[in-house]
């Protein structure tokens, strides 16, 4: 089995429940066809670089999975038939991309697990009286 990464953009008019349903549909499709979900990440609602089907934003979702090469055509056919999906892209990951993706996941997990430093109280600065406004010379020099 090869490792793949797929990103799809869903229409922004979906409710959160409908978006979860769409994600569940594709993760189930992958697992039902002998694939294995390695990682998935919701990138949320983002602005599109250009309008797609008169939409200027979309829900981005990433799924990293292992599957047989023949399955990718089936997955992309399902994306193409689903009117909720604006765009999709599936790429095969080579060994360097797999290592990078694993490193990226570990880094994100470490950042999420690291305790955030407690905010230190800020001491109030002493009040400073404003200097008296100096009288300005309003003469206009004509050349």
Automatic annotation (TrEMBL):
Residues 104-143 are annotated as: Disordered. GO terms for cellular component: cytoplasm; ribonucleoprotein complex; ribosome. Keywords: Ribonucleoprotein, Ribosomal protein, RNA-binding, rRNA-binding. One of its GO terms (molecular function) is structural constituent of ribosome. Residues 109-135 have a biased composition (Low complexity). CDD domains: bS6. Transmembrane segments: none annotated. The keyword Cell wall biogenesis/degradation does not apply. The keyword Transmembrane does not apply. Pfam families: Ribosomal_S6 (PF01250). It comes from the Bacteria. GO terms for biological process: translation. Binds together with bS18 to 16S ribosomal RNA. Belongs to the bacterial ribosomal protein bS6 family. This is Small ribosomal subunit protein bS6.
């Amino acid at each position: 089995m090869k490792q793949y990464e797929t990103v799809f953009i869903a229409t922004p008019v979906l409710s959160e429940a409908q978006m979860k349903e769409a994600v569940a549909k594709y993760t189930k499709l992958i697992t039902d066809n002998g694939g294995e979900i390695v990682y998935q990440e919701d990138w949320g609602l983002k602005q599109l670089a250009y309008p797609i089907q008169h939409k200027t934003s979309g829900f981005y979702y990433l799924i990293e999975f292992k599957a047989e090469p023949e399955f990718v055509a089936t997955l992309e056919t399902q994306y193409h038939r689903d009117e909720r999906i604006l765009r999709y892209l599936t790429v095969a990951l080579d060994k360097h991309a797999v290592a990078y993706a694993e490193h990226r996941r570990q880094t994100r997990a470490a950042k999420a697990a690291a305790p955030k430093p407690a905010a230190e109280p800020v001491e109030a600065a002493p009040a400073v009286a404003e200097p008296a406004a100096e009288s300005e010379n309003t003469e206009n020099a004509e050349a």
